[in-house]
Amino acid sequence: MKARRRRKAVPLTLTMADLTLASWETIARRTLMMAQNTCSAAEYRRMVHEKAQAALESTLILVSSGGQASLASVIAPWHKRAAANAKRLRKKKNVAASNGAGRR
């Protein structure tokens, strides 16, 4: 069995910057979906569920460490979800654009 390679630790400032940009992108794409009335009920549920899940994970990290967790580890669940949402919504937008390109 191969040994797992650890990723290099990303500086907190870069993690925060990436979290900020991914959050802005996600908010912009979801706002556009709402304005165009294309935001599904599943997407609305996902918005609520992901924040509750990230808050729970951050709380568990903080509590299990006895309040000694690093800020980077507490922010990690939020960053992971924001980056995944931005990527998913970006792909969704590209698929919708390519599907509508041939219609006229």
Amino-to-carboxy terminus distance: 54 Å
Choose one word for the global shape. globular
Number of helices: 3
Helix content: over 70%
Question: In terms of structural class, how would the helical and strand content be classed?
Answer: mainly alpha
How many E strands?
A: 0
Order of helices and strands: HHH
Taking all Cα atoms into account, the compactness measure Rg is 17 Å
Strand fraction: under 5%
For the largest beta-sheet, the strand count, sense and barrel status come to: none
Mean pLDDT: 88
Low-confidence runs of at least 5 consecutive residues = none
Protein architecture, described:
The protein has 104 residues and is an all-alpha fold. The protein has a domain at 39-82. It has 3 helices and no strands. Helix 1 (12-35) runs parallel beside helix 3 (71-101) and helix 2 (41-64) runs antiparallel to helix 3. The longest helix has 31 residues, at 71-101. It is globular and about 45 Å long. The model has no long low-confidence stretch (mean pLDDT 88).
Summarize the structure.
The chain has helices spanning 12-35, 41-64, 71-101. Helices cover 76% and strands 0% of the residues.
Keywords:
mainly alpha; 76% helix; 3 helices; 104 residues
Topology:
Blueprint: H1 12-35, H2 41-64, H3 71-101
